[in-house]
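If you are new to this repository, start here. Below is one unmodified record pulled from the training split, so you can see the exact layout before writing a loader.
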Amino acid sequence: MRKRFGIDIDGTVTCPSALVPFINEGFGLNLTLADVKEYDLNKVVNVSQEKFSKWFVENEPVIYEESPLAEGAETILNMWKKEHELFFISARGSHLLENTKKWFNKKGLSYNHIELIGSHDKVAAAKLHQVDLFLEDKHDNAVMIHEECDIPVLLFNTPYNQDPIPKGVVRVNNWYEANTWVKNWLK
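And here is the target side for that same chain:
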């Protein structure tokens, strides 16, 4: 029963704490992932949106090239690749496609398609590619994708996505739990 999975990259395939060392170095801080209680990072860093955006754009290619994989992501994704289609849909800008493909190749990850949409609104891409399931770390994305596409969404549990979730959005703590959920869903 081949399915098409829509999968976010940052904070889902990459370790959710991947940005933290870069933020600490860039802003002279000593944060941990536990300190990141909201997705809007300029508030966490306590700088203006403009200052944070400027810093992020300047550092984005290096951050993406050096981000570590989330634990279990390589094992589970390479296992899924044998039975399902993997469509990675990310808010990264399209100008980062080559950096992103280079990172996937370096990490040994296979994919059927990578779509860098340049915004957090992934509903249109999920509909366009007719995904059957989505994996995400951003709370409002998970809820919107579930509600507008009427598909299950696995929300990777982090300190920054703790708002309540509707039925149909399922919290998972890691890729192994995601795999267990998928196996049960496919039965």
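Two things worth knowing about this chain: The helical segments are 20-27, 41-45, 49-66, 73-81, 97-107, 123-128, 139-149, 175-186. The longest helix spans residues 49-66.
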